[in-house]
Prior knowledge:
Elements: E1 2-3, E2 16-26, E3 29-39, E4 42-48, E5 58-61, E6 66-69, E7 71-76, E8 78-79, E9 82-83, H1 90-102, E10 105-113, H2 117-129, E11 141-144, H3 166-174, E12 179-184, H4 191-198, E13 203-206, H5 213-217, E14 222-225, H6 241-249, E15 252-256, H7 264-274, E16 278-281, E17 294-297, E18 300-305, E19 308-310, E20 316-319, H8 323-333, H9 338-345, H10 347-352, E21 370-373, E22 379-384, E23 387-391
Parallel strand pairs: 2-5, 7-10, 10-11, 11-12, 12-13, 13-14, 14-15, 15-16
Antiparallel strand pairs: 1-5, 2-3, 3-4, 6-21, 8-9, 17-18, 18-19, 19-20, 21-22, 22-23
Amino acid sequence: MDIISNHTFKTHSSSTHAIINASVYRDNKRLDNQVIIIEGDTIIDVTCRESIDSLPIHVIDAKNHLVSPGFIDLQLNGCGGVLFNTNISNETLTIMNKTNVQYGTTQFLPTLITSQGQSLVHAIDLMNGIENAEKMGVLGLHLEGPFISVERNGAHQKQFIRELDIEAAHYLAKNQKCIKVLTLAPENVDQKVLNVLKQSSITLSMGHTDATYHQLIEKEGIEMATHLYNAMSPLTNREPGAVGYIFDKKPYAGIIADGIHVDYTSLTIARELLGEKLFLVTDAVTPAGTNLTEFNMAGVQAFVTQGKCHYEDGTIAGAAITMIQSIRNLTEYANVPLHEALNMATLYPAKSIGIDDIYGKIAKGYKANLVFLDEHLQVVQTIQMGESVYQQKS
């Protein structure tokens, strides 16, 4: 940070600092010469330079770079050479966060895919024991399984898939404080069981599901869809399936924009139908942010070939993409305006889990999570919860 000493200052806390010469989007319009004032981990004002008489002592010059809210990834299995399933620990979360901030992601849900029962308990116990999880970017868990469909298991190991019964539902509801999203196959869960979770703060997401449209409309409490198009029953002429249900009922839906999981034309169609309900996820695994070509996918050998993460038989096994690359892909290949691509990585995921009152915007009262982007949409600097945690080497 630059230290400015030749000003007459207003009264500010020692933890107050300002970002000057920032370019930001407001109401989808790009505004230059903006000042973002931060106290602790919170934005206390956003204004133009001319409207303030003096600045806090600590000043960061954004140098006219575009400043975006920090990206929010609600489905992140791993990155930076680690996988949450393989090593459920603080160390893994620390490495994931350190990797994330280099690519603009300041908040994420560590995602545990279908595995042995004790892994789920271990992940919940870990989260319950973490103090200040938000400081390391962790908003809670995404449990992707094990309560999914054998027919649409994707990269999940079938032997660990199991039924979601009333006892398990009560256990998850009891631990709702540390679980943000639960992916399940609704057709395999009794409504009485869903009701237990529906009354909790956990967002129920349909995914890895072989459900028919009519099976889905009979269920209540499903508010989200996990990686739209992938590992779910497709829209066909006589059976709308899970995809048809999503397009009709419009729950929030995550989508992977690596050009491998979903064709960009299909992504464009989804945007036109779902609007602000569609948000980006990476579904990233171990190789994201690295040059790895082989990795351990929760006990199964996996490979990376031309950006595709896969098992030996060709089954897709997560993604190697980062959030900033996803944004670049949207603007380059799917004709998404930049302000909207950024919304899909910030505001819309925040809305989907009900945290858009303090995350996903650059506005007074919001958490100070900010990403500085150059004209090539490369991350120049990242501020996480009010602290500068990454700066591009010059």
